[in-house]
Amino acid sequence: MCGEIIKKTFMKYCLSFEWAKDGKDGLEMYHQQKFDLIICDIILPRLNGFDMLEEILYENPNQDFIIITSYDTDINLIKSLKMKAFFYFRKPIDMRDLQIILVNYALNNQKPTQFHYLENGIKLDMINEQIYKNDQEVFLSPKLKKFFWFLMSNANQVVAYESIISYVYDNEASLNTLRMAIVRIKKFLESEDIITNVSGAGYLLKINKTEPNTHNKLA
What we know:
By secondary structure, the protein is an alpha+beta fold. The chain has helices spanning 2-10, 23-32, 49-59, 74-82, 95-108, 142-153, 161-169, 175-189; strands at 37-41, 64-69, 87-90, 112-117, 122-125, 130-133, 136-138, 158-160, 195-198, 202-205, 210-212. It folds into two domains: 1-109, 3-Layer(aba) Sandwich (Rossmann fold), CATH 3.40.50.2300; 115-205, Winged helix-like DNA-binding domain superfamily/Winged helix DNA-binding domain (Arc Repressor Mutant, subunit A), CATH 1.10.10.10. A hairpin with a 3-residue loop joins strand 9 and strand 10.
């Protein structure tokens, strides 16, 4: 009920607003598209809010979210803070208070441009998860695409081999599988420098060229 009220109140102010009926549904929705901000109750059917967010943060450590709960305990508050929640709401929620928080979020967290421009004529569409080389779209296989965007979600950070094997290949791959995948990605992008192997640790995708944008999506 709370989710329906929030959606009815705020969807007209958002470029995109999706509502998930439970934690599993929310996680599946997140895998289909990315959101600027997630508003999440702790107590959810099938998969609780904390577990859902932990999986999302594993994939994208920079995901912003707001926690909502009627179980006002120090444990919930401390866990929310450790997970770096943008805000922690106790039920019942005053929609005017939530509106103030969302406006502040929009003003202070303008997202980067829809596009990231890398070296060698590579352009990344961050919203639609599309890759362009010299303005021509590059099509990767589902696994290679998942691999590339996992690295992109953790750009400028070393992503451990184990994390890649777990997230991209469901724990059914070897280091040689990763090496061959990187070779194919570099071949498709015609760039040897875009992804670096940090020996004994993992892979690193570096980005540094962006342009400003004000595109916000809400879940």
